[in-house]
Each structure stands twice: as structure tokens, then as C-alpha cells.
TrEMBL record:
GO terms for molecular function: alanine racemase activity; pyridoxal phosphate binding. It comes from Jiangella alkaliphila. Residues 7-205 form the Alanine racemase N-terminal domain. Its cofactor is pyridoxal 5'-phosphate. SUPFAM superfamilies: PLP-binding barrel. GO terms for cellular component: cytosol. Keywords: Isomerase, Pyridoxal phosphate. InterPro entries: Ala_racemase, Ala_racemase/Decarboxylase_C, Ala_racemase_N, PLP-binding_barrel. Pfam families: Ala_racemase_N. This is Alanine racemase. The keyword Isomerase applies.
Length: 347
């Protein structure tokens, strides 16, 4: 009973490897990111893939994710969530590179006996974490007592923010001239990152997940096992909610429910009315009490018979459509950052 991600192993691994090689050829060091649900693969799998790639550093999202990464990856681990004073236990691990985003935290790390390895995050237009560029002179005074490994810049998605990265990196290197000329950027293409490196004479490390792991989804095929089928006559009831069938059809029970993240919607970032309408059409359209499911049966996206259960979903198949058989696999459209698969199949 599985929601399975089928992976064309040669194609996927080949493309991931080419991404790293192309970036390297452009003078940019790739730092793969494994965090959250592991972009559908799981973090341990991504850490193992990073090890295969031979990269020196892997980034994880939080301190809680370090253990899964270090089980599979022997190199350095950058933690993207900034260090905070209660995380003293992490300071003993010499493989960890800590992200520091407040002067008070940097002071505390500078006072720690271990001389922790740190990357100093500079506040960008995202305004999530980071030391204000105006306070960088204070950073300079504290760097002797840590192992400084560069500045981090977390840039907005979308347009080319290489100019912002270049401006901030220059400010940082001016304020801290003695510092290692390394910048850790996010959300730039390898080519954009390369221009920042050239403009600032810095080594650029590109922290990247989506474009690396999910940059080409043609070799990724999510599938849901058909678990059961029930013929339902018009007027009969079915499901947790005992909905009454309005016509004859078949309830198809497929693997994949709320626990897998099926049919969960993140708040949409869609700006325009048209974008919002298309977001609705993809996953959440309620029409006559029905919602379009992400499952494809007999070549077409089908309606939920009722809202998804914990680990399976009930799909409505109208009469006239050839039903699948138990054990068949149905196609399913997923959002990779919210889906947890039961299994990966490396085909
Ligand atoms: C998650 C994260 C990334 C990876 O983001 P993608 O858009 O998936 O490449 C990069 N940098 C930081 C700081 C992150 O938190």
C-alpha cells in the first residue's frame, strides 16, 4: 500500500551531476540543501546523494536535521537556521558550520571555548534573518575568536538579485577587509552566482535545493497503488460522511492521504486573479461539494468521492470509464515540498 515516487535513476542522477559540474565550471561551488520533507526524497536520501556527488558541504535547515544528514554524509554541514543561544550542545561538533544572524549571538559564539565555525548572515531585502549591513563594523571586531567562513546572503525568489548580492557582498568585505572572501548565496542561478563572484573577487557557494533536486521533473513519476474498488448505485451511501451517490459509479480507493500531504494546499502566493483561478483548478476546486483530486485514473484527473483520509483517498469514477484493477498504480500530481512518499523506486 504505497504512495511511491518512481525515479529514473540514470536520468535524475545524471542531471543533478551536470548541474554541479556546470556550476563548478562557472567557478561556483554547489552546496546542496537537504531540509524539511527532503523535497519528496527525504533528507537521508538527499544526504546520501550529496555524498555521491562528492561535494564538500551539505546544508540542512535546522539543528534537528543534522543527525539525519551526518548519518549519510561525511563532509561539513552548514545549518541554515541561524544559531541561537540555547543551542550550546551543537558547538562541540566540528563538522558544523553555524549561521549567525545577530551581533549578540556572534558575541556569545566568540566567547565559546571551541572557536566555532561561523558564516555571518547579512540582512537582505527578504528581511528574515541577518545582521544589518550598517552593523558590519562590529562584526569585524569579533571574528578573531571564531572560525569565520564567509558571509551569507539569502535573496528573494524571482528576478535576478545578483546586483543586490554584489552590493551587499562589497559592503561586507569593505567593513571586514581581513575576512575570508567567501559568500554563500541562495536563489541565484549558477550563472548569476558566477557574476557575483567575478564582481566581488569572492569565492561563491550556491546553496540550492529546488533547482538541483527538482530542476527537471520529467524523470520523477509519483504513483498511487489502487487498493480497492466498490461499485455504487445511485442513491447508495458511502464514505466517512455517508454521502449519497447521485449516479452509478465506482469508488476507487487509492494509497495517499493527508499523512502524505495529499491535497494539502499551502497559502497561495498567487498575485493575480488568473493565477488564483489556476491554483484553484489544480487542487482545491469545490464544485457541488466535490473537490478535484490530484489522482489520474484512466487518463484523467478524477474527483474525490470525499475528502482524503489519513493514508488513502476515495476517488469517484463515473460509469462508462473502465475501472483500474487492485494493484494497479494511478498517476498522482504532488507538491514535492509537502509530500512524504511511502517508498522511492529507483527504476
Ligand atoms: C531552503 C533554503 C535554500 C534552498 O532553497 P531552494 O529555493 O529550494 O533552492 C537556500 N538557502 C536558504 C537560506 C534556505 O533556507
Amino acid at each position: 500500500m504505497s504512495l511511491t515516487l518512481h525515479i529514473d535513476a540514470d536520468q535524475w542522477r545524471g542531471r543533478v551531476r551536470r548541474y554541479v559540474q556546470d556550476a563548478t565550471a562557472a567557478g561556483v561551488t554547489v552546496v546542496p540543501v537537504a531540509k524539511g520533507n527532503g523535497y519528496g526524497f527525504g533528507n537521508a536520501v538527499l544526504a546520501a546523494e550529496a555524498a555521491r556527488l562528492g561535494v564538500t558541504t551539505l546544508a540542512v535547515g535546522t539543528y534537528d536535521e543534522v543527525a539525519a544528514a551526518t548519518g549519510e554524509f561525511g563532509g561539513d554541514v552548514l545549518v541554515l537556521t541561524p544559531w541561537r543561544p540555547w543551542l550550546t550542545a551543537a558547538l562541540g561538533d566540528d563538522r558544523l558550520v553555524h549561521t549567525v544572524s545577530r551581533l549578540e549571538d556572534l558575541r556569545q559564539l566568540a566567547a565559546a571555548p571551541a572557536r566555532p565555525r561561523v558564516v555571518v548572515e547579512v540582512l537582505t531585502s527578504i528581511r528574515r534573518h541577518g545582521i544589518d549591513p550598517g552593523d558590519l563594523a562590529d562584526v569585524a571586531k569579533l571574528l578573531d575568536d571564531v572560525r569565520f567562513e564567509g558571509f551569507a546572503l539569502h535573496l528573494p525568489l524571482g528576478d535576478d538579485h545578483a546586483a543586490e548580492a554584489t552590493t551587499l557582498a562589497r559592503r561586507a568585505f569593505e567593513a571586514v577587509p581581513a575576512a575570508a572572501r567567501t559568500i554563500w548565496v541562495s536563489h541565484l542561478t549558477a550563472a548569476q552566482a558566477a557574476t557575483v563572484g567575478q564582481a566581488t573577487s569572492a569565492e561563491v557557494r550556491l546553496r540550492v535545493a529546488t533547482a538541483l533536486w527538482l530542476g527537471d521533473r520529467s524523470g520523477l513519476t509519483p504513483k498511487a497503488t489502487v487498493l480497492d474498488l466498490h461499485r455504487v448505485r445511485r442513491g447508495e451511501t458511502y464514505g466517512y460522511r455517508q454521502r449519497r451517490a447521485r449516479r452509478d459509479g465506482t469508488v476507487v480507493v487509492v494509497a495517499g492521504g493527508t499523512a502524505h500531504g495529499i491535497a494539502l494546499q499551502a497559502p497561495t502566493a498567487a498575485g493575480t486573479l488568473r493565477q488564483r483561478a489556476s491554483a484553484l483548478a489544480r487542487g482545491g476546486l469545490e464544485a457541488g461539494g466535490r473537490a478535484l483530486s490530484p489522482f489520474r485514473v484512466a487518463g484523467k484527473q478524477r474527483w474525490f468521492a470525499e475528502p482524503p483520509h489519513m493514508q488513502c483517498s476515495m476517488i469517484w469514477l463515473p460509469d462508462g470509464v473502465e475501472p483500474p484493477s487492485v494493484g494497479d498504480e494511478a498517476g498522482v500530481e504532488v507538491r514535492y515540498t509537502t509530500t512524504t512518499f511511502d517508498a522511492l523506486a529507483w527504476d
